[in-house]
Amino acid sequence: MSEWFAACSAGLRLQARQFGKARVIICLTVVEALTFLFLVSLFGLTGSKAPTAIIMQDHGALAQSFVTDLRNDHHSFRLEVMGATEAKQLLDRGDLVAIITIPADFSSTVRSGHTAAISVAVDNVDADLTDDIQRAVPAAIETFGVQHHFGGIRVAPAEHDLIGHDTAYIPYLVVSALALDALVVAGALAATAMAGEWENRTLVQWRLAPASMTGVLIGKLITVVAVSTVAVWMAALLVFFGYGVHPHSLPGALSALVLCTVIFAAIGACVGNLLRKTLPVATLFFGLALPLYIDSGSLEPERFDGGWLWFVAHLTPVYAAVGVLQSAINGLKVTPEPVAVDLGILLLWAVAAVAVAHSILQRARRAQ
Amino acid sequence: MILYWVALDATVTSALYVAGVQPRVFGKRAGRSGTPDAPPTTLAAIHADPAVEFSEVTRRYGQRTALDAVTFSVGTGSVLGVLGPNGAGKSTLLSTLCGLQEPDGGAVRWFGRNERVPLPKALRRRLGVVTQDTALYGELTVRQNLRFAADLYRVPSAAHAVEHAAGLLSVSHRLDDAVGELSGGNQRRVAIARALIHDPDLLVFDEPTLGVDIETRHAIWSYVRQLRNRRKTIVVSTNYLDEALALCDRVILLRNGRLMSEGTPDEILERTGRCVEIDCAAEAAETIVASLEGLEDIAAVNVAETVLTVRLTGNGDANRVVETALTSRHVEGFRVRAPDLLEVFQSLADTAA
To answer: What is the distance in angstroms between the Cα of B101 and the nearest Cα belonging to chain A?
Structure first.
């Protein structure tokens, strides 16, 4: 038995020492644990507080009661009473999911036994959200009727869509999936390609040669982008022709996907040069994939989540990529920033990533 | 008894020794017997036209000094051996020489010019380096590896250059095999072919024969000699003294980052002295050691089971040692050989002390 414990103790000390020499992996293990927690939390947090404005043109008791029912019946909305002008501005800017207007004659109409029409203006960027509104308002009407012993329906919603066309749940959802494809495929491929040069010490060839190291890096990235583009395009074509999602502009959609693979390949090269180990970089990209997917606005535009979730989303290029891809594929504007700004942000990411990679390679050439 | 040891140890060395001929088991001339057309490189030529000059070069890693004010030069068209045990600073010296590291102190001149790291492109084109780990792409074929190197150096007619370099190193028949499938020796040949592909003037080999079989080792020696014949300047680091003696015009010895000695292989041997190994029964060793006491030719005696190793002083007379040992009548055999690297360092340390 003591022999067994001695062996166990040797194994324990061996692994502890190996971990001591693999600090990057240890750090990433902690990051992984946090990202999975983050992922699950995001599932619950995103889309749970859709900002909705209430315009109270009637301040009577029945109107107040109806608003209370609206608040109580559906917890997916964050209802806020505001003026008509402000609400219109916020809806147009993309800060609100919907505006529910309680008309001035609401109380008198309901009390007189007639049906009051409630105007509901919806940002129908995502049919899933529109469906939520369509479910929430009738539910509140029913509760309101039961509470006040009104026979029959006395309130009817009148929906006005902000966008001329509806985007179904799957077409909305898959755009983020394609952005994620580009991130994982191009990012992980580029990162492992560069990390491999360090890990296998083949980078010394680059350092010794008279050739530009950044030139060799860009050459490798072009190949990575070519391979990644084929992979992402295959997924996109399956979405377009298999799922029946008709892109707003096919050339635009395919071009946007190429752009995303370029950006993410550049970021991957940067990460590969920083971490210099293939296993950690691959783990990092796959580990970050799902949290970034959720926080990229995959379920609804991230702008509706507000606060820190939206702030965090801005820290990742996936957010801007989804903005560009939603515009190209579904013709939607899902970020408050114009698509041109999203494009600019993506290009900045790429330039910064290549600049960091270039700097690391130059430092490697200067000294070890 | 005398005849008995002759029978036991019927080596050419011993026979020559008995015949009164001073044998050269190792050494520059013995090593180069296969290359009679090698142009002579005189010391004057080496110093007159140095390809690389190290002047008081120091390199530190934190608190540790890897190179400590090292000064030497490598003559154009000559072969310099960098000798030293593991951790002596050989790889650091070679990295500095290749421009992979900037020295913390001192200066390095390449082809008469002071340069800073990163080295100018024109100079990098003149350098060919074989690193200790071959730094090849294992998943790619030999041809693809060589082609990548040719592209990096913008070698004209790259396809032809690949075939030529592979031919020089006798790996033409493996051109389309993945490097990862090759033996360690063949991988080393490919690494050398890669370093040669752009026809550099200065070649740096970091322990080129480490871990290869004897056949490949001698093949690599042969390539180095061919390169020397083509007036290439070569710097080769090695753990093996016999390798340095066989290949090099000059040798520098490093220990703990310091240059302990420098000279031609013959000069090094003259400074350190040869070794006499005496075979005997274990119980007779003390008697033989006692018989050798008082001889001025002896620097140190080491007894290991049935072999006595007598390290001679620089000008120690092996004849006298052998004759004295024979008087004990317990000698079963003997041989005279060049010292190994450890013995050289021990000898130099003794001299310094």
So the answer is: 5
The answer to whether the predicted template modeling score (pTM) of the entire model surpasses 0.95 is no
CA distance A367 to chain B (A): 5
For helices B158-168 and B142-152, the axis angle rounded to 10 degrees is 120
Determine, for residues B117 and A367 on separate chains, whether the beta-carbon distance falls below 8 Å: yes
B321: left (phi over 0), alpha (psi -120 to 50) or beta: alpha
ipTM confidence score: 0.76
Smallest Cα distance from B64 to chain A, Å: 15
End-to-end CA distance of chain A: 49
Residue A331 phi/psi, 5-degree rounding, is 65, 30
Q: What is the DSSP string of B187-239?
A: HHHHHHHHHHTT--SEEEEESTTTT--HHHHHHHHHHHHHHHHTT-EEEEEES
Third-level CATH fold of B2-24+275-337: Alpha-Beta Plaits (3.30.70)
Domain ranges of chain A: 50-161, 169-366
Interface residue B4 vs chain A (CB under 8 A): no
Q: What is the pLDDT along chain A (368 residues), one digit of tens a residue?
A: 788 888 888 888 888 888 887 787 788 778 777 777 777 677 666 666 778 888 989 888 888 888 888 887 766 678 888 888 998 888 888 788 888 888 888 888 888 878 888 888 888 777 777 777 777 777 777 788 787 777 666 677 777 777 777 777 788 888 888 999 999 999 999 999 999 999 999 999 999 999 999 999 999 999 999 999 999 999 999 999 988 888 988 999 999 999 999 999 999 999 999 999 998 899 888 888 888 887 777 777 777 766 777 777 788 898 899 999 999 998 888 888 889 999 999 999 999 999 999 999 988 887 65
Interface of B with A in 231-260 (CB under 8 A): none
Residues of A with Cβ-Cβ distance to B122 under 8 angstroms: 210
CATH superfamily ID and name for B31-265: P-loop containing nucleotide triphosphate hydrolases (3.40.50.300)
Q: Do A216 and B127 touch (CB under 8 A)?
A: no
Q: How many residue pairs bridge chain A and chain B with CB atoms within 8 Å of each other?
A: 55
Residue boundaries of the structural domains of chain B: 2-24+275-337, 31-265
The fold adopted by the segment(s) A50-161 is abc type-2 transporter like fold (3.40.1710)
Measured between its terminal Cα atoms, the distance across chain B in Å is 40
Q: What's the rounded Cα separation, in Å, for the pair B351 and B343? A: 12
Contact A210 B153 (CB under 8 A): yes
Residues in B closer than 8 angstroms to A211, CB to CB, are: 151-154
Closest chain B C-alpha to A283 CA, distance in angstroms: 22
Contact across the interface for B127 and A208, Cβ inside 8 Å: yes
Which of A194, A199, A205 should be substituted to probe chain B, the one whose Cβ sees the most B Cβ atoms within 10 Å?
Answer: A205
Using CA atoms, how far residue A249 sits from A254, A320, A325, in Å, is: 9, 18, 11
